[in-house]
Please model this.
Amino acid sequence: MNMKKIGVVTRDCAGVNAALRAVVRTASAAGVEVMGVIRGYEGLIKGDLVPLDRRSVSGIISQGGTILKSARSERFFTREGQEEAVRTVLRNEMEGLIVIGGNGSLAGGHALASRHGVRVVGVPATIDNDVGGVDFSIGADTAVNVAMDALDKIRDTATSLERIFVVEVMGRDCGYLAMQVALAGGCEEVLLPEREFDMDSVCREITAGNSQGKVSWIIIVAEGRARAEDIASGVTRCTGFETRIAVLGHIQRGGRPTAFDRILAARLGHHAVEMLLGGQADVCVCMKNSGPDVVPLATAVRRPTFDFRYDYQLLKVLS
Ligand code: F6P
Model:
């Protein structure tokens, strides 16, 4: 399609800036003007836009967060809010919109495309890695690495003081981040939203391990399963052992993107522009069998169901 101007909306996580850089530079190379939307859908409603050229995205490949800033927008999920956002698109002659973000952002993009006819292409970017039909979202690899670094440090104290640590990781209702972090950190246990657990059997394992000389444990708990403090007090109650907790929180969402996330961002940002200019809309870009591909946004917004049985068994055999 012969487009003159497109817009780009972002949410924050590591690698979003790298994707924005790829979008702007691919569009510039095709002679297409890019308007950055400040503070996500809230900015789209208010018409808060900034023109972006090749130079305005210099040096951002390694920066976490989003240079466009982000915000939650309750208004956008009302009909009036969406109509206001569409008016901004039309008034500013944006012929297409690229939305870089997770489930909520992509759902917003899907609403604009399916209900209001805006040509939207989504780019999956979320530490939760819970975008339907998409194997890897930008930001998830960085989050795993950031959490793994933290765990390595926690393990030093856990081993030295012979203690049990319960570490809570993000991921909303999805256990992907928790499972990856637990495997990468060589942890003893992981409590996932996708898997029932029995506190008594966790405690029995700790007590049995202790009687054979195992003195330090790291239990990962996904925020969508339970709170670290509840698990820690449960373990202390039934084993009698002292526990400590660490809630990793937003450190997992920030930081310099890993090489994997930068390369994924480059590929997906570039592909999103190509798809938009190629006439595609209401789709989300992804990688399939090492090549760029798309899935419908309607699929992307449906959270995938992970089967962690193999990885969980692996963790238990190796711990
Ligand atoms: O979706 C990304 C995420 O970081 C989740 O893992 C977490 O539950 C949530 O966002 C936190 O949201 P907020 O930054 O609004 O507290």
About this structure: Residues 102, 126-128, 170-172, 223, 253 surround 6-O-phosphono-beta-D-fructofuranose (CB under 6 Å). The mean pLDDT is 97. The longest helix spans residues 140-161.
